[in-house]
Known about the structure:
Chain A is an all-alpha fold. Chain A has helices at about 10-20, 25-45, 50-65, 75-95, 110-125, 130-140, 145-150, 155-174. The longest helix of chain A has 20 residues, at about 25-45. Chain B contains five helices and three strands, in the order αααβαββα. In chain B, strands 1-2-3 form a three-stranded mixed beta sheet. The interface of A and B includes residues 24, 30, 42, 115 and 170 of A.
Amino acid sequence: MKLSGLRPVDDRKIIDRVLNGDTEAFNLLVRQWEKPIYNFILRLIGDRDEAMDLCQESFMKAYRELETLKDRDRFSSWLYRIAHNACYSRLRKDQGKTFVELEPETRATRSSVESRLAVEKALQYLPEDQREVVVLKVFHSLKFEEIAAIQGAPVSTVKSRLYMGFEKLRSLLG
Amino acid sequence: MTHVTDKIAEFVFGELSASEMAEGQRHLAQCSDCRQQVESFQGTYAMLKASPDTEPPRRVLFEFEKRPTPGWIWRWLAPMATSSAVAVAIVSLSPRPQPQIIERVVQQQVAAPAPAAAQPVNYQQIVDELRAELKKRDVEQAKQFDRVRDEMMFLHRTQQALEKDTDLNSSAIQKYAANFVRN
């Protein structure tokens, strides 16, 4: 099966197979979603090793709790929610840690690598809830309603977080 | 909708209805404030989008075994997991409600900085490395065992010496006591 561009109907079919005993099929879901989930977590957490651990933990939890998934067409949102919970547990543990100040020279003309690093650093400046909304909206193209379900917040709150996040990022990135 | 800034995010992300989007476009043609704010929002969006996704440093792969893997594999493989680039979660095929999760090192897959042909994985090398590691640990374990045995022998000899001294002291005390009573 070609893995790129899996649609919800494909996710549902794979989930049906897994729950009917074809457990190996779970790897198809993993292969499809590990990069987006890893990047979502990385942009939220800011540390590659931790992001990889949490990514793995999220898939393990998804496998264990697959039977509890009510709407198999919404596997991706459910998976993002699992990753969200894993990240917030880790972020609560890391509360109080400081991070590196954004250096003024990052605002100058940048190479693509520097741009990526500048964006990563700028994102870390945002409060977690704003950062999460920005990441899910910009990089994962989720709808406001989906983000609201993941965060357990009203849609209006999600939109406010996005606006505030963008304001802050505009001032940081120039 | 009067000003686009009321729903700037929905407008930029295309989440308004077709009629609202058309109305917004017409408004932007006439309102420089809204146009400036939308351009600013789009500029920030473009800067963020320019940051590409990163490849995960290792792949997550679930392997399902019919039998549970003995715990001793986890004990000697777990310390190597930090140096590995791929972690494999093995889930035993015991009934789904309570799976056993064990991590096992399988292979190293480093993302090449430049596009290149896929590198074949040398499984034999990995197996040889694991065997060498096991052998090294066996040797270390044997040395540790010898150390513990030597310590035990020393303690045993010390105990014997103490018992001997205790016996001598007891005899001396009894003789002294007997002399004391006689006198």
